[in-house]
Design brief:
Blueprint: H1 6-22, H2 25-36, H3 41-48, H4 52-64, E1 68-71, E2 74-77, H5 79-110, H6 118-122, E3 124-127, H7 135-146, E4 151-155, H8 161-172, E5 176-182, H9 183-192, H10 194-202, E6 206-211, E7 217-222, E8 225-231, E9 237-243, H11 246-261, E10 263-265, H12 266-272
Parallel strand pairs: 4-5, 5-6
Antiparallel strand pairs: 1-2, 3-9, 4-7, 6-10, 7-8, 8-9
């Protein structure tokens, strides 16, 4: 019979300990209470609202794992117990973050955006919900207006009158705008948003490129802020993430340059239409 190597044995033991702690909210609560300060069993019982028998049994389990020791009638968390507690709390925070950012991350992964994990760790998210289905659109419009007078770079898979109006206001305020759209958006702009298309062609502070490939997510960049927008399968803006993280800023800049490299100026597309 093969003998497990040390790595496998350590992994199994770690799983058992994690399963033990996660298996009861009371265990987590007791470790959290003791992490703050040493306590007598009666004080622990009062703090976690559990029976004395339950507390004594859990404290015995912690002592067996060397997470706590008894000193002067009080239970104290050991350094290893502190690390277990802190790691578990970090895990809970990550699971909560995954619940909030999951849809955004899944939408971007579905279209192969390869978003860096730092975006999830550092970004602020605006989500379109049933009670406010236009939350993402409204936030993007606000960002366009906030960028008035700045250099702005954007990639968009949609054309919306609200965006056109905000972009016009930004140009009026002295902004320089570079925008990448795809052919579907260009054709819709030409057919349904003539004044905005003319402004994009005639304003020296506006440069629009047309990608030959469909665009499946959005980017927006100005000053020290980078935004990434996830769209649903019907091309509705669903989530907008804003970040000032340097890795995310560089990623957005690189992605924008790659879109521009494979794009054609709007003027050439209009001329050929």
């Amino acid at each position: 019979m093969p003998v497990p190597d040390d790595q496998t044995m350590t992994s199994d033991h770690g799983h058992d300990g994690a399963q033990y702690l996660a298996g009861s909210p009371v265990r987590v609560a007791i470790l959290r209470v003791l992490r703050r300060e040493p306590r007598r069993p009666a004080d622990v019982t009062a703090a976690v609202d559990a029976t004395r028998t339950t507390v004594q049994r859990i404290l015995a389990g912690f002592r067996e794992r060397d997470w706590v020791v008894k000193r002067d009638a009080r239970y104290c968390v050991t350094p290893t117990g502190q690390r277990v507690h802190d790691a578990y709390e970090t895990l809970l925070e990550e699971v909560d973050r995954a619940d909030r950012y999951g849809t955004f991350a899944a939408d971007l992964e579905r279209v192969g955006a390869d978003l860096p994990p730092e975006a999830i760790a550092s970004g602020e998210l605006t989500v379109a919900a049933d009670r406010n289905p236009l939350a993402a659109v409204d936030r993007l419009t606000e960002l366009l207006r906030e960028g008035c007078g700045a250099e702005m770079r954007a990639v968009s898979p949609v054309v919306i009158q609200q965006f056109n109006e905000a972009a016009a206001e930004a140009l009026d305020a002295g902004a320089d705008i570079e925008l990448v759209i795809d052919r579907d958006v260009a054709e819709m702009s030409i057919a349904e948003f003539g004044p905005a298309t003319d402004r994009a062609l005639d304003d020296e502070n506006a440069t629009v490129y047309v990608s030959s490939e469909p665009i499946t997510y959005g980017l927006f960049r100005y000053d020290g802020v980078a935004c990434v927008t996830a769209y649903d399968r019907r091309n509705n803006p669903r989530c907008v993430l804003e970040s000032t993280n340097s890795t995310v800023l560089n990623w957005v800049d690189d992605r924008f340059e790659s879109f521009v490299a494979d794009a054609t100026p709007l003027s050439a597309v209009v001329k050929d239409a």
